[in-house]
Amino acid sequence: MTYLFTGMIIGGIIGLMVGGLAVAFKAAEKELARLDKEVSDAHKQN
After folding, report:
1. Is the full-model pTM beyond 0.85?
2. Between the CA of residue 31 and those of 4, 5, 19, 22, 37, what are the distances in Å?
3. Count of domains observed in the chain
4. 12, 36, 42, 46: which has the fewest Cβ within 10 Å?
5. pLDDT value at residue 43
């Protein structure tokens, strides 16, 4: 029973880390797209 609990805790931590990294990667992609658009708009104004 202790091994089951330990495994569930470790699995939960790993799951949260992988999920958090996926969310951070998705947010970074959106931010890069926004910055790309902003830079291209700045170049068009000049």
Report:
1. no
2. 40, 39, 18, 14, 10
3. 1
4. 46
5. 87
